[in-house]
Write a structure and sequence with these properties.
Elements (H helix, E strand, L loop, with lengths): L6 H18 L3 H7 L4 H9 L18 H14 L1 H21 L2 H12 L4 E5 L15 E5 L2 E12 L4 E12 L5 E9 L5 E4 L12 E12 L3 E2 L5 H37 L1 E2 L2 E2 L4 H29 L5 H26 L10 H11 L6 H11 L3
Parallel strand pairs: 1-4
Antiparallel strand pairs: 2-3, 3-7, 4-5, 5-8, 6-7, 9-10
Helix pairs in contact: 1-4, 4-5, 4-7, 5-6, 5-7, 7-8, 7-9, 7-10, 8-9, 9-10, 9-11
Bound molecules: flavin-adenine dinucleotide.
Keywords: FAD, Flavoprotein, Oxidoreductase
Protein name: Acyl-CoA dehydrogenase YngJ
Cofactor: FAD
Length: about 375
């Protein structure tokens, strides 16, 4: 076994860390307060090739692997959970399904500009009445001549307000056994009948753009169906497996930031004539945080490695997502505790880490759903 990163992976990590610390970190508090999506930062990230890390050069990407991409998500998440979430969603949910399942024409038209960082894409699966039970989708797509006509509603779709295209799932027919066939469709964001509202007032990840989408007689050419029309459900399960690695990486970033801040503060803050890092109660908190961050990162790297090797990774990505998101929440909570009253104040940032970390236990499959995925993989 080899736990060392390659030279390229190390270089990308350093480059993203520099960018995150110099460009994103100084604005993180402000983006959170104003709930502002940093469009300009995404343009810069595009120029650096970050939006194309896991895609081949022939499709506008930089030909990196999942490990490199996970390292980039961690570094961005370390300074701003909201920017990290939008970055992870853009690559894993927006672009990746087109790369995995798109036709050559779809890749040229939609993936190439995304990988080059010339725009963002979204993935619209969740609906007001279909969340964890994504198979219960109520959006409908009907073939009329050479076009599909789509009607329905999607909730909490990341980046949709800034997207060039949105891949939406919809029921397109019935199987012989009476079950719904769910297909995925690429819908350009300027298609008539598509309304995108971004009015949510969120607890955390406030720099991330989150939208409600209404589809009223939205017409797309039948060529816009993504991949196998009969296998839309399986396709989005695969997409979510990959996305979970990036959510887990984002969680590691927040957990690491919590540890870094708590450790630095514990070494400075004096009570009872000594720094609080001298108290064993504080040391034990820091020791547990450090151990859990290390474990979570190893799980992310293993899931990413399995994906890169073309091996099954469903169980490992669920392990990583579940453990890392719960680690991030615990670490952020302990970081606030170690900061005492200062930790409750916005300027110390650890309270934001907690608010941002909470989303990671919900999005891309709640913790309960991760446990279900793992149990199924165990044969339950
Ligand atoms: C900021 C944000 C960004 C998001 N971005 C996107 C996006 O880009 N694209 C997208 O499609 N969706 C997105 N989502 C939606 C997200 O994936 C869902 O919120 C999530 O899957 C949970 O669905 P739900 O909210 O409907 O909860 P529900 O499914 O209603 O769950 C409610 C509770 O019941 C539990 N529960 C449900 N079923 C079971 C079960 N079988 N066993 C045990 N417990 C169960 C859940 O774990 C949860 O605790 C986003 C959400 C947020 C908040």
């Amino acid at each position: 076994m080899n736990f060392e990163l390659t030279k390229e992976q190390e270089m990308t990590r350093k480059m993203v860390r520099d960018f995150a610390e110099n460009v994103i970190q100084p604005r993180a508090i402000d983006l959170d307060v104003k709930a502002e999506f940093p469009e300009d930062i995404f343009k810069e990230m595009g120029k650096l090739g970050l939006l194309g890390i896991p895609f081949p050069e022939e499709y506008g990407g930089v030909g990196g692997d999942t490990i490199t991409y996970a390292l980039a998500v961690e570094e961005i998440g370390r300074v701003c959970g909201g920017t990290g979430l939008s970055y992870a969603a853009a690559v894993s949910l927006g672009s990746s399904p087109i790369y995995y399942f798109g036709t050559e024409d779809q890749k040229q038209e939609y993936l190439v500009p995304l990988a080059k960082g010339e725009g963002l894409a979204s993935f619209g699966l969740t609906e007001p009445n279909a969340g964890s039970d994504a198979g219960g989708t109520q959006t409908r797509a009907k073939l009329e001549g050479d076009e599909y006509v789509i009607n329905g509603e999607k909730s909490w779709i990341t980046n949709a307000g800034y997207a060039r295209s949105i891949t939406v799932t919809a029921v397109s027919g019935k199987r012989e056994d009476g079950k719904n066939i769910i297909s995925a469709f690429i819908v350009p964001a300027d298609t008539p009948g598509l309304t995108i509202n971004s009015n949510y007032d969120k607890m955390g990840v406030r720099a991330s753009n989150t939208c409600e989408i209404i589809l009223e007689d939205v017409r797309v050419p039948k060529e816009n169906i993504l991949g196998d029309p009969e296998k839309g459900f399986g396709q989005f399960l695969y997409t979510l497996d990959g996305g979970r690695i990036s959510i887990a990486a984002l969680a590691v970033g927040i957990a690491q930031a919590s540890l870094d801040r708590a450790l630095a503060y514990a070494k400075e803050r004096k009570q009872f004539g000594k720094t609080i890092s001298n108290f064993q109660a504080i040391q034990f908190k820091l020791a547990d945080m450090a151990m859990e961050v290390e474990l979570a990162r190893n799980m992310v790297m293993k899931a990413a490695w399995l994906k890169d090797q073309g091996k099954p990774f469903t169980k490992e990505s669920a392990y990583a997502k579940l453990f890392a998101s719960e680690t991030a929440f615990r670490s952020a909570n302990q970081a606030i505790q170690i900061h005492g009253g200062y930790g409750y104040m916005r300027e110390y940032e650890v309270e934001r880490y907690l608010r941002d970390a909470k989303l990671l236990e919900i999005g891309e499959g709640t913790s309960e759903i991760q446990r279900l995925v793992i149990a199924r993989q165990l044969g339950c």
